[in-house]
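Blackboard transcription, Thursday session:
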Amino acid sequence: MNYIVLMKQVPDIKNIPEDAWDWDKGILKRGLLDNVCNELDKQAIAFAVAMRQEMPGQIVALSMGPPFADAVLRYALSVGADTGVLLTDRKLGGADTAATAYPLAAAIRKIEKDIFKGDRNYIILSGMQSVDGDTAQVPPQVAEELQIAHIAYATSFSISRNNNDNNNNTHLYIKRISRQGTQTVSPVTYPFMITITNWTRHPNATFERTRWANSQRLIRWSAADVNGDESRIGLAGSRTTVFKIFSPRDVRTRRCIFESDLAKMAGLLRDTYQSKSRPSVQETAKASYQLPKGKSPTYTGEVWVISEHDKDEIHQASFELLGKAQELASQVGTKVGAVIIGQDDPKLASRLISYGADKVYMITDDRLCDFHPVPYSRVVCELLDKYKPQIVLFSATPLGRELAPRVAYRANSGLTADCTALDIIDFKRGTQDYTAILKQTRPALGGNIMASIITQNSKVQMSTVRPGVMQAMKPDEKRIGEVIKYEPKLNESDFAVKIISSEEIPAASELKDAAILVAGGGGCKTKEGFENCIPALADALGRFLGEKAMVGASRVAVEKGFIDRGHQVGQTGQTVKPKLYVAVGISGAVQHLSGMQNSDIILAINKDPNANIFKIADLGMVGNFEELVPKLIKVLNS
Amino acid sequence: MDKSKNGLNKVDVLFIGAGPANLAGAIKLKQLLHQKGLDQSVVVIEKAEKIGHHHLSGAIIEGDILDELLPGWQNNQEDKFTQQLLAGRIIKDDFYFLTGSNTAFRIPDFLIPPSFQNKNAYALSISELMNWLAGIATKLGIEIYTGFAAKEIIIEKGRVKGIKLGDKGLDKERQPLSNYAPGETIEAKVTVLGEGSAGQLAEKVVKQFNLNHGINPQIYAMGVKEIIKLPENNTFGRNRVIHTLGFPLQPDVYGAGSIYSMRDNLVAVALVVSLDWRYADLNPQHELQIFKSHRMIKDFLKDGEVVAYGAKTFPEGGFYSVPQLVADGAIIVGDAAGLTNAMKRKGLRYAIKSGISAGEAIYQAIEKQDFTARSLKRYQDILGESFVMKELNASRNYRQIFSRTGRLGNYLGIPLSFFQSWVPGKLDTKPSYEGMRKAHLKRQLIGDIDRLTAVSLSGTTHREDEPSHVATCESSQAGECFRDFGCYPCTLFCPAEVYKFEDGKFVLSPSNCLHCQTCRLKCPRQLIRWEVPEGGDGPRYRVM
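(Written on the board underneath:)
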């Protein structure tokens, strides 16, 4: 078995030097950030090295970037790769994900031919996403270009050898995070792609191997070397373009409201929570697009939503998409279509209609009840060809983030990942003149900048949308809609991955998934003090606001042994952005603030009214936590 | 490691630390080897994740030393660093005495000894200088590996054989994690110890080979430094340096302040303090804030934004504290050798010269294939005939004078120091930590940057779950400190707030550490242990 690992050089967003911020313009100067290897790609190479111990073969590390990106390949060599290939060419610069995936796929074909001598028994590995773009689109699009299977969110693998089998067949099983929990799958055909998420610690290189890596000659290929079609690479091949970068920090002009009355505080919490956690609501009120006179829209067709469901319940995220789709459709004067894939269930269709769908496209095939990226993207594309919508929205869920890139690539159209705002605008720049197009806004560089993006050179505009950002309509059971059924023709060979088992236990959740985070600091004084107050407050707030609440801690609290390090928030812990962050007994050292200051609402409870934490808090209570917290819990519970 | 060739852990010449002395040494050596067409592996290892990250200095450099190492360096029109350096030539050089928080007077030039003057030298960032030198070194074929920390010196049969790297991937209890990589040994014909101030491998070699016979114990000073971005129309100006004496330091604390202009309206603001201070509650980072609050300094720094912070120690024992610098298979250079001048407060030029001298001596040793101390002694001979030892000799008792003036401190020390060279023979030094008394400055906490904010500006990071690389006394023993000094000095003198004493016990934050080792040198009861953490950890200086 051979292996190709995709490696990317990214800016070091964990260590941003102070002078890299341009506070006047509110942007980050990319040039002043160090370049490092994408952390998940380091894990991908470790994954490949571990697999090779079971199934020996060559490991080729492949990267695309400027000449100095060879550093990531040297790293790959130093921890186990045999060969490094750098795809470097000015013509490849300025590429979006599709224009990155295409030349990478071409390089993979060339590696297969030149290095593996035509042997197709290989596995392509990559980190799930890179920290700079954070789109997770390139690997699925490479897979789509190569027409191979893709196993996303892999967390481990195992191998079984069937001794009775004369061929000494080795079976590979990959455990992955799925929308229901975890899943064990097995590839049927090779090659295929695995993308890795938080699998292990990144490997440490030895001096000996590092010195060897340094002495190796890397293979450098230009666009011409891999026979790239020039219209599909670089700027020309890009289907999206960033037209504006701005700071997420202008929302950070907080003024702390101090409130000592507990009942009033509870009320304030609920009010701010409900208003701030739906930022698009206020925008909706403002958003009204008027088509300029004498102009016709650049895109025509319906606004579509690709819905997701578990058995007989549609996901909340899909209802949120429908709410947004309704708003967009009314601005451009069209209808909303919802696509549902899987079993033939009229109840699901009527749910979609009640939440805003005017038409429901039902793709029915029992084999599609489980998510298989290859046939899913094929049937969605068939539907796109037939009905030609102008906008397609996906949820930025595991399924959406895997399906959308493949659909977009196949449809030769642009895709913007993980949007937090969508608007209709007219756009004019240079030779580009678009009317009534979709402005897609998303965070980038680890949430340090915001980017507004438009789709170009495409038939359809596509986005994945972060769940919990858009607002669903109030369901109306009386709404009338049309149901259109579509029965695709699928072959067994379309199912290149066999699902062995699924477990419906949610994967260990991380702090960053919590909507509400209650963190305790050194001010909690003792382990008992921490344990008595912090989890109880998290529980009470979770019930009070009806969302998932978790427990966090400052570095001091962890250092004092109040709780284990998995809960640490801050520069050396986790970076979190919950809707509500409650800091109890945390003074607010910058090291802590940098890990939580992008939270929507911050409530600080501290005995020192001059504590730093109040400078960035929205709501504040001054007092002894041992008295305040139990009282607050009582009020929240009543 | 299938394809890895064996023997890669053996090199010809190994330099420990990618600092000015070692990079200059490696460059000089490789230049000489190239001239003779000799192929020898010259390898530099550095514990920082990237070049320059662990380097901090004033910094001022005289052009002549670069002329010696890299003739014609200033003619490179294309090189950005060279152009920046040339543009940073010092034109205005002032010396002030700060008599109070509002008052200052400028010391006229004729009163300032020529050795204190900096005109026509260049103010620069040593982190950037290291990157420039590393680029030149790499082009010459020198191998530089960052993120590898040398932890132990290997001595076999009376000869330094190489070093052992620190382990990577241990948890807090020193149990291996999934990415555990045990520290390898690297063997070399010559190991050059250029670890910088208070280098522990150099200390070990000095002790093991008894190289410090009859010399003074080394004494140290420490500096805290901020890089401040000033607005375009600032009053400090360009091509300018100032040095100050006096405020905020007490007369009996030996130290000085400085502001150097750098590229792009950046200035380096620093305060250096000799570690033999007596005040148990002296907090150098806070003293720097008080320095910045002086009316004149405040005016200079108006509307400036602090963009970086760092701290380091440096030796200042001078001539009589320099040990023998060679052993069989080893050479000690730069700060690790104690080659700094307390009078001029400079060491960069000496470091580079010591590296050049080491490069020349090693080259001759390679020609002879003789790496014994006797052969390597050539290094010390070259150094002895150079300006380095001559200047150190000329100021041989300078620093010691100040340790003998008691409470009058600098008021007596400065005039007396003019006559230091008349003192016959050697004045002794006492280790810096012996100076501490139950004396308090009782400072009001003021200033715009508190210690933890400063730490964050250093960019320092350490893997939180690695074994602690610092250790202090048992919390139960801390009472003795409080009894003797009325406070817990380490919680104050550490420029990075690594030590905290709360609710009756020590809480350590090793991840804040700036690797200056002030703690190890200043702990009055010598109970602090500091060892090199995992390679790649530590501060991230970019313009220090």
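Lecturer's comment: The first strand of chain B starts at residue 10 and ends at 16.
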